[in-house]
Amino acid sequence: MEQAERSIGTADGKANIQAVRPESTALNVSERIDALAAELRKAGVSPEQSSHLLASAASAAMHAVMLDAILSEPPAAPSAEEQAAQPMRLAA
């Protein structure tokens, strides 16, 4: 399945998070921050207020990209020690 189409979350479809490539998220949030900057200038928001808002937006964008990168990594296989430490389930 294409990584950009894989969803993560519950099987019933509630509260699923759509996993996308980190590069896609980075481009998307970059475009949105650029659009925010343009709208702030157009609205006459002071440069000081704009810089604070854009800094917050950039920080949130970095967190979003990091989250996508973490979610796109395949889960690590448990080590032999971890597997041995888990109790074995038997059919009833």
Describe this structure in words.
With 92 residues, this protein is mostly helical. The chain has one domain. Helices cover 58% and strands 4% of the residues. It has three helices and two strands. A two-stranded antiparallel sheet has the order 1-2. β1 and β2 form a beta hairpin. α1 packs antiparallel against α2. It is rod-shaped.
Strand count, sense and barrel status of the largest sheet are: 2 strands, antiparallel
User: Taking strands numbered 1, 2, ... along the chain, how are they ordered across the largest sheet?
Assistant: 1-2
Helix content: 55-70%
Number of DSSP strand runs: 2
Mean pLDDT: 77
The secondary-structure element order is EEHHH
Number of DSSP helical runs: 3
Count of structural domains: 1
What separation lies between the terminal Cα atoms?
35 Å
Strand content range:
under 5%
Overall shape: it is rod-shaped
SS class: mainly alpha
The Cα radius of gyration reads: 21 Å
Detail the poorly predicted runs: 1-10
